[in-house]
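Troubleshooting: if your tokenizer reports a length mismatch, compare against these two reference records.
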Amino acid sequence: MHYELVDIGANLAHDSFDDDRDDVLQRAFDVNVNTLLITGSSDESNVAALELAGRYPVQLYSTAGVHPHHASDYDEKSDDIIRKCLTDDRCVAVGECGLDYFRNLSPREAQLEAFRAQLDIAGDTGHPVFLHQRNAHDDFVEVLESVLPKRSRAVAHCFTGESESLREFLAIGLYIGITGWICDERRGEHLKDIVAVIPDDRLMIETDSPYLLPRTLRPRPKSRRNEPAYLPEILKTIAAARGQTEEHVAAITTANAKRFFGIS
């Protein structure tokens, strides 16, 4: 294996990693997942993600945002924490932020308000945006269309949608993050049919650890916890679906991630 990979979305501040976080990272480095973006999704995880990035200053970066599930908790303190994190060079994006009408753990109005507030932060600071969307396509696109021309870059993290939404996301300028969902024969097969639509310069890959363990892994891990070391399995599945070599997909996704997040 002669390529390096960037995992643009790993929730390594999650408590499921508390007992072996350093080992998890070493396993990732051992398979050339050399750069990881630690996702911030709440006041607490934003601080924890940045602290973790500081412990591995060559390989780790973080994001800072409030997930739509936590939108009801978004207040001035949340805003201040995100802005403060972004003053550190290791915090390189606003998010995870967006809309989630699948569970509606926060009311839709609260989600829209928190989403717009975080897009304002991205506009003020010039940082790219790490986006979440589930069952909220129309509102999501409507909010983004009005602000994207004034934002530097935005990625649809963990894209799981159909062809029409993919084409619409590409048309408004989004990058696309693909996870192990594409390895799930029960609900991700459609992604294999459409992932080739994504231009080479807009594709990125991610594990979304500890979620979305790739179901194609052999032998199957004893634990259902996903981790960054499994990113090569996602790469392999994407490359096959796109009719490209793993080396090519590794090269383009790594270059895209470094350009998108402004990292070396």
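Reference record two:
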Amino acid sequence: MPCMRYDLFSGMALLTVSGISKKINGNAGVNNISFMQQPLQKIAIAGETGSGKTTLLKMIAGWMQPDGGEIHLNDEKVIGPEEQLIPGHPGIAYLSQHFELRHHLWVHEVMEYANELSDEEANELYAICRIQHLFNRRTDQLSGGESQRIALARLLTTKPTLLLLDEPFSNLDNIHKNIIKKVIADIGEKLRITCMIVSHDAPDILSWADIILVMKDGEIIQQGSPQSIYRQPVNEYCAALFGDYNLIDSKNAKNFAAIPGIETNGMDLLIRPEQIIIKTTNRNAVAATVQEVLYRGSYYSIEVLVDENLISVYSNSNQFKTGDKIYLSLKAEDVTYLSC
């Protein structure tokens, strides 16, 4: 079956965001943000609540007017709602986390309204969104995850070039979360639609994104591959967004100077729990005392004390118990140095 195809405009950026700013209630909701997105490049935007993620996404979609800067899709300016009667851009589909379906309609009625797809294209879209079995239900009989996929499929009947998803994994159980993850992957791979996601769900965006933009107070403070964002966060804020970490202050970091390749130089050390190696001897290692062992399902989280620092270590072994003396080591490349 042939897929719906979209021009990739190879050799040029699909989306260009240039110096976009927006004040919210007198404060900088988004401040002078610039970046580009290539065709089929998967970009995720992460940040704490109030960091400006959704505001940025709404401006890209043409649903919110920037105070300054410009947005272009395929070299065509994205016009804000103050510059046109009907907000939005025909080449951009935006699914808000607060989407709504009209109540008491049949699902097939929702999907048939203003649908210009051929039967073959429509059937392909319905299969990708996993909604064929829902057509004989009313919208008030759907779960949250089912409603989300119906709303998404409805947007995709317009054949957008760019799909913007605001917190698509929020408030979903694991079953529906896994389904929507597969749907989003298929939208990019089979429909050839470029996607951008706003999410605070670290495991999902780390495994999906090509590029992650980290926002704080309306600004991008770090951007890069998921691997670089996770392994070399620029500060504690960025580290905390993407999982557990240990921050060892410069005073106690000297304990780790015995490990080859680690030079503290008055810096704090940031280390992920899974990067710490448990050893049975003190050779090139730091002595520690087990304080607590927590079962996490696929691994054990071991809380250990190194002088005054409580440190988390992950292990697949359940051989450790409170009071055990163990030794910790590291690879020098797994340590991130932060200014005090």
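Descriptive notes for reference record two:
- The chain has nine helices and 18 strands.
- Residues 65 and 80 are 5 Å apart (CA to CA).
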